[in-house]
Amino acid sequence: MKAGVAAAAHHEPVAGALYSFRVLVVLLLCLAGAERGDGQAVAGGTRRRAVDVGVILDRATWLGNVSWACMEMALEDFYGDARHASYSTRVRLHLRDTGPSAVDAASAGVDLLKNVRVQAIVGPQTSTQAKFLAELGNKTSVPIISFSADSPSQSSSQTPYFIRTAWNDSSQAEAIASLIQKFNWREVVPVIEDDDSNTRFIPDLVGALRHVGTRVSYRCKIHSSAGDDDIKGTISSLKGNWTSVFVVRMSYQLALKFFRIAKDEGMMGQGFVWITAYGLTDIFDVVGSPALDVMNGVVGVEPYVEDTDRLQDFKQRWHEKYKKEKPGTKLNGPILSGLYAYDTAWALALAAEKARLLDSDFVPSETNNGSTDFERISTSKASEKLHDAFLKTSFPGMTGTFHIQDWKLLSTNYKIINVVGQNRKVVGFWTPGLNISGNLKTNADLYTIIWPGGTDKVPRGWLLPANKTLKIGVPFKPGFGKFIQFENGKATGFCARVFEEVIHALPYKVPIHYEEFGDGKGESNGTYDSLVYKVYLNEFDAVVGDITILANRSLYVDFTLPYTESGVRMLVPVRDQRKKTAWTFLEPLSADLWLGAGAFFVFTGLIVWFIEHRTNHEFRGPPASQIGSVFYFSFSTLVFAHRERIVNNLTRIAVIVWLFVVLILQQSYTASLSSILTVEQLQPTVTNLDEVIRRGDYVGYLNDSFMPGLLKRLKINESKLIPFNSPEEYNDALSTGRVAVIVDEIPYLKLFLSKYCHNYTMVGPTYKFDGFGYAFPRGSPLTPEISRGILELASNGTMAELENELYGGSGTMCPDKVDSQTSSSLTLHSFLGLFMITGASSLLALVLHVGITIYDNRSHLVGACSQGSWRGSLAILSKIFHEPDNMSNTPDTDETRIANVDPIVESPWSMSSHIIENFDSDTDMGSPAGEGTPGREVSNQDPGPPSFAYMHSEG
């Protein structure tokens, strides 16, 4: 006990001495800090507060070295500026060189937070490092600021304490997509390093390309540790692909190795397109000539930084500083990431002052008694204030306006560079408003780009794979060999000829090799759907044949434009529907026309008789004779065989008009009757499928086609469907009545009709389907090329010539026979105008005749009317229109003349030579010569009927 007390008494002076020594050391450290400026006084007696910021970099890389130098210069420039002399804060950087390891970076972060108690951490260079440090920042509320790494999360709100002070990759993806859209490239392959740096870039790039209609067929990933053999294997796979447009994003070291091997393998030649993303474009500043030598023709995208006097001055000072620290370096100036690092340090200095930090803000929070160092890390209000102030900081930086939006630096414009020889030239810009342009402020064409191979001709975006021969599948088609047929290792027929015409017209050579889709024993290996699916399985590079473009097939392949007529119709036999009987001669005129014509024949005959019978003895005689004259005269005009003599001018007018009508009627009848007797009226036996379904007839279709599915959808019973393979089988089935119709595509039916033209026809509606097309794999660049070739053949007439050869010439094609040769009966309506004209002229002649006759006999009528007897007037009128018009002959004269007539009429040739008269064959002569007064002429007068006066006296 005493010994212990003595020992304690002995140690007390020692403990007191140690305590005094510690106090002295603290005081000395404070004084030293004051001398270094850690807590030095400023104007007004205020003590300057130190804001500790950790820096995690890999000093073994160009990026780490350049960035550290730029951050040091930023703080020197910031605190050396007179405008900042009165600031009460000073940012103090604590560097940790961790190398590329994410574990070392995380360990350095814990050390900085636990032991140094930093208020922010700057510089995780890679996304893998940022992933760990971002979680550390979330837990401790300490901002993690990176000018080179991507956000470790798809959503920045998930890591609110991770801030990216470089332009986001989304805008870069839009710039690359706009450049690809500018040259109309439809497929792109990203070639990227297999690490976390592309976690967000690739989804952004794929989305931007999809927005402009460009497809990403696959993504080529190369591990950072890949050797030459691995890279050669990757390049060989790229050479075996059709696409020749590549977007590259990888580290400097891997990119230099990749492009060197690509050049050796011939992939830096003509036809290829290489686009480098931002990050890789700095390789020319870092590596210099070795990169320029292997990357000629490469097009790069990088943020546009205005070349100001301030920037030029900084580059010069940085170069002098870096040369002193790194003598012998070939680096010409700070890379873009170094400028971002400069602005980041500057922004931290501004934010530290704007945060208005107090001494109490630096007091650590309550100690967490966790079991690990990570859990025991304490936080302070200073970190949160610095975080909030940093997000609100805005100033004109080296790279432009520094402004944080959505936890990353707001991006603006990009420039497009082109590697030509040993130089990089700016060929254009991308801006959110103008997209791709040769000028920042107005729309303008890009400057000339020199592509790989030293050409300024824009590559088409795809190349035929090296040593590639297209394996073309040909369907087995024995029945319709004129469309496609495989003979002696070569495809023949219309489909193959069109394809080869297009292939030979291409400006480049496309080797092709045909293979038949058959078993070699005269049978097909499957349906057309199976053949198309072989293209999807990459067993064929294309299919050439009579392949119909269908929606279900287009899910697996891409089709060219159709090169044949499209649609599906019915093929049916035709029959002559007109029956020729003993009464066929009546068919040319309809019943109403027959009745109407007969009525006008009788009407015209009556009119002629009424006018002529007073003055023309040929229309007189017994009633039966006069009725016969009426009908004989009128109907004999039908063949212009009338013999009666017309003496009245009014009658002649009526007859002339009537003869004109009869002429037209006769010619029309003759033409219609000839058509009926000589021309067949061919009509289809079936006009629609509903009739076939109702009657339960059988329906034929082409074997191995898509017709069964279509016919089932049209409600045709599957048991009524019969497949056929050739035009001959079609003809046999239709002619024997085995099937009522054949349903097939129009090209097949036209080929059938070119051989069996006169017995069949196409009828019914056209069911819409695209025609024949060539099938290629999805995304194949040959698809639009072949489609354009098909359009060219159609426009220059070659396609029409090939179709004429296929169908045997346009002159032999059969037109649709439905109602094409129907000859219908003539109707009364067609001749109504003519009948109205002849009826009016006849009535007019009748009216004039009645008027003239009454006027000439008005004295008799006046006398009859004066007696006041209407019956007498009617009798007078009846006698006027019934008696012959021979008023000059008196009854005595007539009687004497008739009494003296010799019953035997002498011939005019027996008369005296001094009397020559013309006699009608039907007239009587007067007294013979020698009788009567000598020297008096013999008067030749028509005896005619008794005169009106005689009839009146007899009455």
TrEMBL record:
Residue ranges spanning the membrane: these are 593-611, 831-855
Q: Where is this region: Disordered?
A: 920-955
Domain Ionotropic glutamate receptor C-terminal per the UniProt entry, residue ranges: 471-809
SUPFAM superfamilies in the record: Periplasmic binding protein-like I, Periplasmic binding protein-like II
Q: Which positions form S-S bridges?
A: 757-814
Specify whether Chloroplast is a keyword of the entry: no
> Which compartment or compartments is the protein found in?
Membrane
- Which keywords annotate this record? Disulfide bond, Glycoprotein, Ion channel, Ion transport, Ligand-gated ion channel, Membrane, Receptor, Signal, Transmembrane, Transmembrane helix, Transport
GO CC list: membrane
Chief location bin: membrane
Q: Name one Pfam family in it.
A: Lig_chan-Glu_bd
Q: Where is the signal peptide?
A: 1-39
Superkingdom, according to UniProt?
Eukaryota
- GO terms for biological process? monoatomic ion transmembrane transport
Keyword flag Transport: yes
Topology relative to the membrane: Multi-pass membrane protein
- Its biological function? Glutamate-gated receptor that probably acts as non-selective cation channel. Glutamate-gated receptor that probably acts as a non-selective cation channel. May be involved in light-signal transduction and calcium homeostasis via the regulation of calcium influx into cells.
Task: List the PANTHER family hit by this protein, alphabetically.
Answer: OS06G0188250 PROTEIN (PTHR34836), OS09G0428600 PROTEIN (PTHR34836:SF1)
Q: How does it assemble?
A: May form heteromers.
The entry sums up its family as follows: Belongs to the glutamate-gated ion channel (TC 1.A.10.1) family.
Q: What is this protein called?
A: Glutamate receptor
- Please give the organism: Urochloa decumbens
